[in-house]
Structure formats: C-alpha cells, structure tokens
Specification:
Structural class: alpha+beta
Distance between the termini: 44 Å
Number of strands: 8
Oligomer: single chain
Strand content: 15-25%
Order of helices and strands: EHEEEHEEHHEHHEH
Helix content: 40-55%
Number of helices: 7
C-alpha cells in the first residue's frame, strides 16, 4: 500500500544527495504537480511540489526514507494537543495530548502519520492501529460528556469567560497530565491555535514554567 509523508527542504536535499550517490533511476514526471519520479526495481517514489512524498511501501523504499528523514533533537519531547467535538450537539468534547521523543516522532513519520485532514478514511484506520499502541503510555485524554460540558460552560460564562477559556482549561489539564507522565527537561508544545493569548496564560501555570 502506498505511503505518503511530508518532507522538509533539508530532507529533500538528503534525498537529492542519495539519488546522485546511488544513481537511482529517474523517470519522467506525469503532471505539473510532480517534482520527481523514481522507479528503480523495488523503489517507487513520487515527490510533489508541495513537499509530499509518496512511496510504494517496499522494504527498500522504507530503508531510503529512514535515511533521509531527520529527527529534531533540540527538544527531548514534542507534546501535541488538539480537541474535537466543541461544536457537536450529541457527542463529547475530547481533548488529547501526546508526548513523543524525537525518535518516536520519526518512527511515526515513516508510516505516514501527519495532519488527519490530509488522510483518507482508510489511511486513518490503518494509522490508528499504529498510533494507539505507540502513544498508550504517553498520552492524556480529557473527555467532557454533554452534561459535564454544559455544566462547566455555564460556570465559565458566570465568570465572564468564553468557550475559548474552556478549551484552554481542557488543554491545560491534558498537557499537565502528559508532563506528569514523561517529566521532560526541554519540551516543545504544539497546540491548535484557537486562542493563542488565552492558551499562553494557561501554559504559564504548567509544570515547565
């Protein structure tokens, strides 16, 4: 099954160097969106101008991908936090934070883990089987069922606060839970930008201040 990943400019340069050193066979591109095509025995790769790289998933292609992907060791943990359900009528508000080391992040990138909006349903199902076990011990969920959500929302409204304040609170709880698990020395925290100012205020109260 084809695997899609996004690569950086630095990783693109490593790919170019690898092609020059090994003499991988390049073939003509098929449309204006493609930047490069490689078809050499079991290695099948298409690189798009957007930075997306698609390969055929063979062991040889995976080995090449492992050579060009770069881990960012500037941080000991990358902590990501996102939410879903804040506009739903019947479902809960769910906030999940996950902490990954640079090597864990690299491992997941090899399988094509990226923004879920860029993934098909079949890709999401496949990656969920990988993400579940990979993040089991380094994630924290905050689940607010409608009754609890409405109760908290009313409390926040009485205090003159908005939905974004509630979201910032939930993200803060989830992130603080992850920090307690991994106890990072130099983390990088990435959060969906729903209200940067309010989220910054919440982050100031976390363990890493």
């Amino acid at each position: 099954m084809p695997i899609s990943i996004n690569i950086s400019l630095e990783e693109l340069e490593k790919l170019k160097d690898y092609i020059l050193k090994t003499g991988l066979k390049r073939v003509p591109i098929t449309n204006e969106y493609e930047l490069l095509r490689i078809s050499d025995k079991n290695i099948q790769i298409v690189l798009y101008r957007t930075g997306k790289l698609v390969h055929n998933g063979s062991e040889e292609s995976r080995r090449l991908i492992r050579l060009i992907l770069q881990a960012d060791y500037e941080y000991d943990y990358l902590i990501g936090s996102d939410e879903v359900g804040k506009g739903e009528w019947y479902g809960p508000l769910v906030v999940v934070s996950v902490a990954l080391t640079p090597d864990q992040l690299l491992y997941l990138r090899e399988f094509g883990v990226r923004d879920s909006k860029l993934l098909s349903k079949s890709e999401l199902k496949k990656l969920a089987m990988i993400l579940g076990p990979a993040t089991e011990k380094c994630r924290k969920e905050v689940v607010l069922m409608p009754e609890k959500y409405n109760e908290l929302y009313e409390q926040f409204e009485e205090e003159g606060k908005s939905l974004n304040d509630l979201l910032a609170w939930a993200h803060g709880v989830a992130i603080n839970g992850v920090l307690a698990i991994v106890e990072p020395k130099k983390p990088k925290i990435v959060i969906d930008k729903f209200d940067a100012k309010k989220m910054d205020l919440r982050l100031e109260r976390l363990r890493i201040t």
